[in-house]
Amino acid sequence: MASANKAINFASIGSLLPSSVEKLKNSSPTAQMKFRLSRNPSVKAVQSPAVESDTGKWVRQRRPHNVNGDFFVDHTCIDCDTCRWMAPQVFTRVGAMSAVYKQPISSEDRLKALQALLSCPTSSIRTEVPPADILEAQKTFPIPVDEKKLPGVYHCGYHSEKSYGAASYLIIHPEGNILIDSPRFTEKLARKIEMLGGVRYLFLTHKDDVADQGKWSKWFRCDRILHFDDVEACTSHIEMKLEGNGPWSLGDDIMLIHTPGHTEGSVCLLYKPLKLLFTGDHLVMTESGLSIMEMYNKSSVPEQVDSVKKLLDLDFNWIIPGHGRRIEFKDVPEKNAILEAFVQEKYNQYSSATNKRF
Fold it and tell me: Coiled-coil ranges per the record (predicted)?
């Protein structure tokens, strides 16, 4: 089974970080890192007009930003970034949407492109010729994130438009598997997860990424977990509603941390054995760097920054967000140096928190 796209390693990549990290790097030996960032070749952006057919329905059009060849992205792309981190050898961002900048040549690149096609929440990735190997690509889900470093952790694929293309993950656990946020429901994926032991808990990081949680709950008869402050009509029947500020535990090795800000009930999941933190929309890695996605905040940006600061007290080396790239830190001191710099920069940025210091 093919491994998912590699995580960003902060030991080798640094231009993604805020400028304050450079100051840390120069002043603190624990924060010193050598940085390198590879970029996709630039593609000239051209406006792609939407086309209406005689029936009054919008026709999907191949964006002119795509290079010639079989794979292409059409104009329905919502710029969720999924294909760009799943298959960066093929897809890039042009004109506020994704586009194919290089057709896959190797079998590995083709598989990644097909996995991205299947995971696209809006079915905006297409091929000129129906792919004969699409069924083989479907069989690869869920995809191991990193079989050596993160055994038993899978990317489910099949992102849902209902959660703006958020990723869902599966932890294989001896006391019952945990599905983190909801992928788009498909019976093929459900049966593959059954083969891995099914699902005992469906943990929902926040109210935005619940997608097809009802269908998954019905299929696996699992207990759903969501903070009470994020419960809405569609999740009113959630089996386990977290109340208060936590933290809460699922057994001895999983901790749930309340990180309000993006939403009032945002919660992160810490899987202690692998030092792995699932952050939902609380903290993500975009193409531009670490982000709390202020423009999508539904509660309080200053509170969200305070919640990022809480992560300094946790022992983890990995961040797997709901959107964007996974992050691997060299060690906890590096993690803390980077998060301290990020939080301080945000405190300086927002007037309501300018007097806060570490």
Answer: none
Give the model confidence (pLDDT) of 274-308 as tens digits.
999 999 999 999 888 899 988 888 888 899 999 99
Strands (E), 175-234: 178-180, 201-203, 223-227
Q: Cα–Cα distance between 199 and 173 in angstroms, integer?
A: 10
Mean pLDDT of the 312-318 span: 96
**pTM for this prediction:** 0.84
Mean pLDDT on 8-34: 39
Q: Could you give the angle at the alpha carbon of 232 between the alpha carbons of 228 and 233, nearest 5°?
A: 135
- Taking alpha carbons only, the member of 105, 102, 41 closest to residue 73 is 102
For residue 77, the Cα-to-chain-centroid distance in whole angstroms is 17
Tens-place pLDDT, residues 129-145: 999 999 999 999 999 99
Q: Can you tell me the distance from the alpha carbon of 194 to that of 181, in angstroms, rounded to the nearest whole number?
A: 17
What's CA 40's distance to the chain center, in Å? 20
Indicate the SS3 state at residue 21.
helix
Cα 17-18-22 angle, rounded to 5 deg: 85
Torsion angle defined by CA atoms of residues 66, 69, 70 and 76, in that order, rounded to the nearest 10 degrees: 10
Half-sphere exposure of 159 (CA within 13 A, CB side): 28
- Rounded Cα–Cα distance for residues 274 and 356 (Å): 32
Q: If pLDDT is split at 50, 70 and 90, which confidence band does 9 have?
A: low
The yes-or-no verdict on residue 16 having pLDDT over 90 is no
Helix ranges, the chain (H): 19-27, 82-86, 107-119, 134-138, 187-195, 213-220, 301-310, 332-349
Beta bridge partners, 268, equal 257
Give the pLDDT mean for 26-48.
33
The residues, any chain, with a CB within 8 Å of residue 1's CB and separated by 6 or more, are: 140, 143, 144
- Residue 152: the pLDDT is 98
